[in-house]
Amino acid sequence: MNRRRLAALGVAFSIVAACLLVVGLQPRTVSGLAVPLPSSPPPSSFSAAVPPAAPAPTSKLARPGDCASLAGGLDVRAQVAQLVVVGVTGDNPASTVSLVRDHQVGGIFIGGNATALLKDRALAAVQAAAKVPVAVSVDEEGGRVQRIDDLDGDLPSARTMAATKSPDQVRALAADRGRQLRARGVTVDFAPDTDVTDAPDDDVIGDRSFSPDPAKVKTYAKAFAEGLRDAGIQPVLKHFPGHGHGSGDSHKGTVVTPPLAQLRSVDLVPYRDLADYGPVAVMVGHLDVPDLTAGVPASLSPSAYRLLRGEFGFTGPVLTDDLGAMKAITAQYSLPDAVLKALEAGADQALWSSGGRVDEVLDRLVKAVQTGELPPARVQESVTRVLRGKGLCA
């Protein structure tokens, strides 16, 4: 890209601050993951106070009408950077600002229990370092998996919510939590969990699942997703094609699921008619489905993405489960190779919670595009979905 074109883009980029990723954004609906904010969200039943709204990010991206044109205006490194979500530590805001400023990644993931990055408008500085607004994600499910309980109070587990509350109450609870997340600068929640299981509460999925009844899982997951969207948070369904009846924990090693026919009758039921959920993303797990993925984790398997895009008709953004801290992946693949394989297979974004190694990964992806190993059209397709998912274009 020549300097004149860069200068032109820079001028266009300066327009966005007033209209992107702010709590006062007017209602708007586009395909994929974009989040319309309602004029009157459902009544609140969650009493924790919401902190003051974070200021508008000062990123420099204009809102063009066409996501494909915007994606095509980025150089190769900028494009592939949009396709990664990198883990950051919650106790060092300055390092996160440096990460985004230096690498312009598409997303960050805040894991663990440290909360400095979620206080005092620290994420506004992160957005100010981004030329393209960065997606800020957490995995706020409730129960064992939550990130702001020390700041905003406890959220019940999915199993407890489904056992004690109506779907409308869960929607209101999720909307309250979403408003708290949004006020702290978070834009994406890796929730709800749509796995189906009756396993004990402390099992790898366990009480993260709403129910052993797939229809009930869908009802409550839909309510939770709607509540997040009511608050302006982007929901992510997980873990396709279904972790609830897997053989173990992908953090610890290979997980094998039942055959595809059995998944279709139980674990995949919550993914039927995905349009019912409204705009969502889907996370693909590191799950070996014997008659589908042939020994390869679903997150790296083209057949798994074809199943999601084809049989289940999903057109929104798809991202991987954690590629950097789960032995189902790390025992077989280096991080750069795992990221590349995921994108080749059909993922739109690759996640690694462990952080670091960003230059190494981006160098590998750029080389793959330049040699044709990762087709430019494949990259363009995913960048378009990512940008549309952020609500930056139509």
Entry keywords:
alpha/beta; eight-stranded parallel beta barrel; 394 residues; 36% helix; two-stranded parallel sheet
Would you kindly provide a brief summary of this structure?
This protein has 394 residues and is α/β, with parallel strands linked by helices. It has 15 helices and ten strands.
Give a description of the structure.
With 394 residues, the chain is α/β, with parallel strands linked by helices. Helices cover 36% and strands 10% of the residues. The chain is built from 15 helices and ten strands. The protein has helices at residues 3-13, 67-72, 76-81, 93-103, 122-128, 149-152, 158-164, 167-183, 214-230, 260-265, 302-309, 327-330, 335-345, 358-371, 376-389; strands at 84-88, 107-110, 135-138, 188-189, 234-240, 255-256, 281-284, 287-288, 318-322, 349-352. An eight-stranded parallel barrel has the order 1-2-3-4-5-7-9-10, surrounded by five helices. The chain has a two-stranded parallel ribbon with strand order 6-8. β1, α4 and β2 (107-110) form a beta-alpha-beta unit. α4 runs parallel beside α5 (122-128) and α13 packs across α14. The longest helix is centred in the middle third of the chain and has 17 residues, at 167-183. The two termini are 24 Å apart. Mean pLDDT is 86; it is low at 1-64.
Secondary structure: helix percent: 25-40%
Widest β-sheet, arrangement of strands: 1-2-3-4-5-7-9-10
How many helical stretches? Answer: 15
Mind telling me the C-alpha Rg?
19 Å
Please state the overall shape, judged from the principal axes of the Cα atoms: globular
Structural class determined from secondary elements: alpha/beta
Instruction: Estimate the strand proportion.
Output: 5-15%
Largest sheet: 8 strands, parallel, barrel
Low-confidence stretches: 1-64
Count of beta strands: 10
Q: What is the residue-mean pLDDT, rounded to a whole number?
A: 86
Instruction: Report the end-to-end length measured between terminal Cα atoms.
Output: 24 Å
Which sequence of SSEs, written as H and E, runs from N to C? HHHEHEHEHHHEHEEHEEHEHHEHH
